[in-house]
């Protein structure tokens, strides 16, 4: 590797430089965007078989004044690599708490409470004061812990498992619920899954996308649903775009859905009334 070092460096330097340039540019803009409050949240419905609302997922949106809308697929990885996900993630959770208070006011009639699911990055969960920060934000906003769900990823589970489990247990003791996001795309073992105090598994949309054409995806979806059942966990399918996919999933025993078929992510104002 050393011998090729010089040539390799020359070969890749331009690409590396532009990649670095892009990332540094985005990172700087992102830092300023957090200070300037250029973010908002969209909410995507989660529905049961009958189409009834069972919850919403909060999804971060960045509208840069000079870049225009920037996809979370682009800025979340940069936020995670730079640590900016810590202030951004705090902001997202606080906004979700405030929205939860608005949606769940006692004068909202007899509607069942709306549970808002919030994405949490591995780096956030790894902070020693993560649980404290979550609980303080809930208290300060007057939200109810039972109206909030955290979506964690498998990558957040592999390091220091016991410390992670302790945090999860404390969150649950206070009434929050926990989902494992993008399930099936990571590396967590079944024995680890058994130890995690989860409430819900989310079937990743990559398995849903080609469900009707790919037998292995059917096998995976079927296994996840059976596994969730065996472990006493709820299961929800993500990225459901067609009636055929939904019917197929229903035949496998799935009863909870999220995806364009059931509603796209929209600003909170567009949500009221769409129960
Ligand atoms: P995710 O958590 O897996 O969120 C689901 C993504 O799938 C969202 O993309 C959503 O808009 C999209 N989606 C929903 N239904 C459908 C469908 O039927 N078809 C297709 N093709 N896509 C669908 P989005 O909003 O672009 O977010 C991408 C990822 O960025 C999220 O994936 C999540 O990992 C991350 N992200 C977004 N907001 C936050 C946040 O506040 N904090 C953290 N840590 N990550 C976030
Ligand atoms: Ca998610
Ligand atoms: Ca997901
Ligand atoms: Ca995903």
Automatic annotation (TrEMBL):
It comes from the Bacteria. Residues 23-275 form the EAL domain. Keywords: Membrane, Transmembrane, Transmembrane helix. The keyword Nucleotidyltransferase does not apply. This is Diguanylate cyclase (GGDEF)-like protein/PAS domain S-box-containing protein. The chain holds residues 604 to 878 of 878 of the full protein.
């Amino acid at each position: 590797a050393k011998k090729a070092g010089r040539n390799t460096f020359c070969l890749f330097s331009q690409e590396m430089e532009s990649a670095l340039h892009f990332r540094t540019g985005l990172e700087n803009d992102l830092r300023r965007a957090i200070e300037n409050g250029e973010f908002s949240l969209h909410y995507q419905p989660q529905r049961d078989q009958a189409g009834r609302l069972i919850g919403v997922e909060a999804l971060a949106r960045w509208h840069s004044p000079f870049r225009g809308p920037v996809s979370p697929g682009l800025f979340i990885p940069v936020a995670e690599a730079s640590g900016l996900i810590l202030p951004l993630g705090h902001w997202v959770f606080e906004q979700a708490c405030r929205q939860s208070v608005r949606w769940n006011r006692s004068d909202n009639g007899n509607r069942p409470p709306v549970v808002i699911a919030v994405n949490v990055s591995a780096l956030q969960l790894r902070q020693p004061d993560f649980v404290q920060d979550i609980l303080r934000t809930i208290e300060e906003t007057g939200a109810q812990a039972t109206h909030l769900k955290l979506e964690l990823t498998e990558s957040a589970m592999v390091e220091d498992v016991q410390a992670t489990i302790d945090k999860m247990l404390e969150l649950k003791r206070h009434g929050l619920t926990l989902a494992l996001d993008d399930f099936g795309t990571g590396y967590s073992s079944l024995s680890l899954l058994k130890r995690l105090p989860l409430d819900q598994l989310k079937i990743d949309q990559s398995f849903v996308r080609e469900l009707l054409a790919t037998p292995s995806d059917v096998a995976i979806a079927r296994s996840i649903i059976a596994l969730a059942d065996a472990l006493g966990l709820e299961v929800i399918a993500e990225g459901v775009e067609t009636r055929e996919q939904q019917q197929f999933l229903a035949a496998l025993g799935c009863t909870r859905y999220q995806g364009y078929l059931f509603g796209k992510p929209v600003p909170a104002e567009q949500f009221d009334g769409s129960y």
